């Protein structure tokens, strides 16, 4: 389990990335960390990409319906304007953001802000997803989570798409995707 670094002494920012397949618990873990920061009386701002309207226009919602309020935005530079006077910034569905997001996270961390980012590391084809590889390269702390493979019960790192759509971005949940282990993923792709 991730334990927050000590905040004693001069305040320095850092970047945490939570990654993994769909259903691996990224959003739950993001919400858990943000709730703990709130308990510590830290000032928090939470962002998600405007296109992610799957469960709610505004809130970040996990597959188990844990939720937290967020600000939907269309480009990552908006975070630099909106995250004033805050101690912690949370960002969900990072894979959908533009290529500037790693730079934005760097700038926030330089301001002394703790940045917690959650996102899919791979798309349905098993390729690195969007800006995630660059974020992972810049992260100070990385947590890789796993779902349970729906075929065999082993740990799952892949998000298998159940229909024939070929576009990279296709919002959805259980009806469209299932988490699979490497073996079960490659046996049907
Ligand atoms: N195959 C699965 N493996 C693990 N968790 C699953 C699975 N299917 C459904 N879930 C549920 O999904 C929850 C995680 O949801 P969430 O945090 O939204 O994941 P993510 O953001 O990584 O997609 C788990 O706590 C569990 O209740
Ligand atoms: C694999 C994959 C996923 N998506 C979409 C599907 C969901 O709307 C989100 C992932 O949400 P989660 O919180 O990680 O469950 O991404 C996509 O557009 N393309 C893909 O290849
Ligand atoms: Zn499997």
Explain this structure.
By secondary structure, this protein is of the alpha/beta class. It has a domain at 14-145: 3-Layer(aba) Sandwich (Rossmann fold), CATH 3.40.50.300. It contains 5 helices and 12 strands. The protein has a 6-stranded parallel beta sheet with strand order 5-2-6-7-1-8, with helices on both faces. Strands 3-4 form a two-stranded antiparallel ribbon. It has a two-stranded antiparallel sheet with strand order 9-10. Helix 3 packs parallel to helix 4 (132-138). It is globular and about 50 Å long. The mean pLDDT is 94. The ligand Cc1cn([C@H]2C[C@H](O)[C@@H](COP(=O)(O)O)O2)c(=O)[nH]c1=O binds at residues 22, 26-27, 54, 120, 123-124, 159, 168-172, 177. ATP binds at residues 20-27, 92-95. It is found in: Cytoplasm.
What's the short version?
The protein is of the alpha/beta class and 189 residues long. The protein has five helices and twelve strands. The chain has a domain of 132 residues: 3-Layer(aba) Sandwich (Rossmann fold).
The biggest beta sheet is recorded as: 6 strands, parallel
Write down the CATH class of the domain at 14-145.
Alpha Beta
List the ions, cofactors and other small molecules found in this model.
adenosine-5'-diphosphate, the ligand Cc1cn([C@H]2C[C@H](O)[C@@H](COP(=O)(O)O)O2)c(=O)[nH]c1=O, zinc ion
- Tell me the name of the CATH homologous superfamily of the domain at 14-145: P-loop containing nucleotide triphosphate hydrolases
Given helix and strand content, the structural type is: alpha/beta
The CATH architecture name of the domain at 14-145 reads 3-Layer(aba) Sandwich
Through-space gap between termini: 33 Å
Widest β-sheet, arrangement of strands: 5-2-6-7-1-8
Low-confidence stretches: none
Question: What percent of the residues sit in helical stretches (DSSP H or I)?
Answer: 10-25%
Task: Report the mean per-residue pLDDT as an integer.
Answer: 94
Radius of gyration: 16 Å
Order of helices and strands: EHEEEEHEHEHEEEEEH
Number of helices in the DSSP assignment:
5
Number of E-type strands: 12
β-strand amount: 25-35%
CATH topology of the domain at 14-145: Rossmann fold
Coarse shape: globular
Q: What's the multimeric state?
A: single chain
């Amino acid at each position: 389990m991730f334990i927050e670094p000590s905040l004693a002494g001069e305040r320095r920012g850092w970047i945490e990335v939570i990654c993994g397949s769909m259903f691996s618990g990224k959003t739950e873990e993001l919400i858990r960390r943000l709730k703990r920061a709130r308990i510590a009386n830290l000032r928090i701002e939470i962002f998600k990409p405007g296109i992610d309207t799957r469960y709610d226009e505004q809130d970040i919602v996990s597959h188990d319906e844990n939720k937290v309020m967020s600000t939907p935005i269309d480009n990552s530079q908006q975070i630099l304007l909106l995250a004033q006077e805050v101690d912690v910034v949370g960002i969900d569905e990072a894979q959908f953001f533009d290529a500037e997001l790693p730079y934005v996270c760097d700038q926030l961390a330089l301001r002394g802000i703790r940045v917690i980012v959650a996102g899919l590391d791979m798309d349905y084809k098993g390729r690195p997803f969007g800006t995630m590889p660059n974020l992972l390269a810049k992260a100070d702390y990385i947590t890789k989570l796993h779902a349970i493979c729906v075929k065999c019960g082993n740990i799952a790192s892949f998000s298998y798409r159940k229909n024939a759509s070929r576009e990279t971005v296709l919002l959805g949940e259980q009806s469209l995707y299932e988490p699979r282990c490497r073996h079960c993923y490659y046996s049907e792709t």
